[in-house]
Design brief:
about 200 residues; alpha/beta; Rossmann fold; five-stranded parallel sheet; about 50% helix; binds adenosine-5'-diphosphate; binds magnesium ion
Length: about 200
């Protein structure tokens, strides 16, 4: 049987430290694994379109179209980067995935079921982490130009959706309200344990 890698997804609010922690996690895991560190929106054609045309107020698409764009980017990213890396047995760390669509577009009036349906062709991740930082804290951290999603009100609702999937056991919560090194250590311990479990099933 072909060797298969492990697909790890890091989720969280804007400014919760996903990009910081995904990089620190990759650094720690690369001692024992070949890693692909990647992110959504991707660097493919559709990902570029999303970054240029979906994230800031003056250029926003209707919410349904926005959700379809993210789903389309996810598929392109899967075929161009994620699946080839997994087929080579790599450990893929992806900064944001389907739960971001559920949490963000789900809060823009779309049903979670429809969002799940349009993402049904995307690969199922093996390990999904939610880096939890209070919405008030992330808004404080974000000094750069804020996207349309980065208001306290939206971030509070987004966290509620994420926590719903934590309660269901689909996302594993890691406390992100600590200094970077402490979060990185906790994340590494959690993910290492889950990798051991995942390896039994692949
Ligand atoms: N644990 C932390 N404590 C304080 N600030 C942090 C922490 N982790 C990240 N940051 C800072 O918060 C900002 C957002 O981090 P980033 O990793 O870009 O988050 P995300 O990718 O989730 O939006 C950055 O300025 C980063 O340096
Ligand atoms: Mg980021």
């Amino acid at each position: 049987m072909a060797k298969k890698g492990i697909f790890i997804v890091i989720e969280g609010l804007d400014g919760s430290g996903k990009t910081t922690q995904a990089a620190l996690l990759a650094e720690k895991l690369k001692k024992n694994h070949n890693i692909l560190l990647t992110a959504e929106p991707s660097h493919g054609k559709i990902g570029k379109f999303i970054r240029e045309s979906c994230l800031y107020e003056n250029t926003r698409l209707p919410t349904e179209a926005e959700a379809l764009m993210f789903a389309a980017d996810r598929i392109e990213h899967m075929y161009s980067e994620v699946k080839p890396a997994l087929d080579e047995g790599k450990l893929v760390i992806c900064d944001r995935y389907i739960y971001s669509s559920l949490a963000y577009q789900g809060n823009s009036g779309l049903s979670l079921e429809w969002i799940k349906n349009i993402n049904a062709r995307s690969l199922q991740p093996d390990i999904c982490i939610f880096i939890d930082v209070p919405p008030e804290k992330v808004i404080e951290r974000l000094q750069r130009k804020k996207s349309v999603m980065e208001t306290l009100e939206i971030q509070k609702k987004v966290r509620e959706v994420y926590m719903k999937y934590v309660a269901k056991g689909e996302l594993v919560r890691v406390d992100g309200d600590k200094d970077k090194e402490q979060v990185a250590e906790a994340l590494y311990r959690t993910v290492s344990g889950l990798i051991e479990v995942a390896q039994k099933y692949i």
